[in-house]
Design brief:
About 55% of the residues lie in helices and about 0% in strands. By secondary structure, it is mainly alpha-helical. Helix 1 packs parallel to helix 3. A two-stranded antiparallel sheet has the order 1-2. It is globular.
């Protein structure tokens, strides 16, 4: 995917809406290269991992999904090491948060918020070390998530920005977010 690339590849189109963020692919690729290096100690994997970082760091998020995945990518690589960049990205994320705690897909405060994007934001904030007990913006987002759970246990709001209407994506990110914040509640 990154061979002979001088710049970060853009979104990956897979036939579904929304497209796959280049930061989602970067996060998964970095983890794969890192595991391969740890298992084999082959410097090729370390070089691939580090080259990927050089491609991804300067690449600017184009929408809220990219922003969420870039936060996740940096938190995965090291919250302490990338603390300054994470703080700047989280500040940008919060600049688009609605008063009810939700976020839209585009970088446009006039657009409708989306549940799956908002729950992904909670998840990446948790990965970055934010807690609702000490972060009022995150507390609003968690409250919005908890209020939105349906009686049958899933989450599904307006299917805006999605190619098909299913509770899968919203439920996936809500469960990931809440389990990252409150792992003891899973038992």
């Amino acid at each position: 995917h990154y061979k002979d690339r001088a710049t970060m590849p853009g979104n990956e189109v897979d036939g579904c809406e929304p497209d796959i963020s280049p930061f989602e692919i970067a996060d998964q690729s970095w983890q794969t290269f890192n595991i391969l290096y740890q298992q084999t100690h082959d410097p090729q994997w370390l070089a691939e991992r580090d080259r990927l970082v050089q491609l991804a760091l300067p690449y600017k998020p184009r929408n809220m999904i990219d922003l969420n995945w870039k936060i996740q990518f940096l938190a995965t690589m090291g919250r302490q090491k990338y603390a300054q960049q994470l703080d700047a990205l989280i500040h940008e994320l919060y600049s688009y948060q609605e008063p009810d705690g939700m976020w839209p897909y585009p970088f446009d405060k006039t657009r409708k918020p989306a549940d799956f994007i908002s729950y992904h934001a909670i998840y990446v904030l948790a990965l970055a070390g934010r807690r609702p007990e000490t972060d009022p913006n995150m507390a609003r987002a968690v409250q919005a998530c908890l209020r939105a759970q349906r009686p049958e246990g899933d989450w599904e709001g307006d299917p805006v920005y999605q190619g098909f209407n299913t509770p899968f994506r919203a439920t996936e990110f809500a469960v990931m977010a809440l389990s990252q914040l409150y792992p003891c509640l899973l038992y």
